[in-house]
Amino acid sequence: DAGVTQSPTHLIKTRGQQVTLRCSPKSGHDTVSWYQQALGQGPQFIFQYYEEEERQRGNFPDRFSGHQFPNYSSELNVNALLLGDSALYLCASSRPGTGIYGYTFGSGTRLTVV
Amino acid sequence: AQRVTQPEKLLSVFKGAPVELKCNYSYSGSPELFWYVQYSRQRLQLLLRHISRESIKGFTADLNKGETSFHLKKPFAQEEDSAMYYCALGGSGGGADGLTFGKGTHLIIQP
User: Fold this and answer.
1) Per-residue model confidence (pLDDT) at position B56
2) Shortest Cα distance, chain B CAs vs residue A53, angstroms
């Protein structure tokens, strides 16, 4: 089992552009949560997807949106990129009913906005 | 608002010495506390959670609601304990609320 897989590993975008990050959850996991980790900070909760719907959202603007597919994989979309969006984006998946108690994290996507 | 404070960005101790990584939290409800660890070039992984009251790799943490603390302790540090440690707080809602992480403490164990 490859665990949680995120792609791409690194990405460089220009201010104002849009970006899509992808996450494949661990086998048997149905819930996907996204976190943003700025340099020198801890991860910050963006939102969680379950049954193809956004269940909860952290303090992030509407420029951040997501999607979950029937196979439980998920995408994070960020529109109108700002320099401050440069960060490591982490995906965490969990088994049914475990939520925050059963996170498995991916290695992350390093986004650089120039 | 939920908040987690890890006052030490960097903690350096000698092998065999006791280790204590501090974590304080602010939360109005019933908290769920976790410690996550990230070893060099590895993914963030769960070390322990207060609800399990377990000891993992010799580490323990006790939730002190009076002092709103969840300090991580190990009596005898080992070189392989060198890593980044994050304290995290979740609400009693359990599932959808996500975790609030501290900024992390970089633990270095010197030989």
Assistant:
1) 85
2) 11
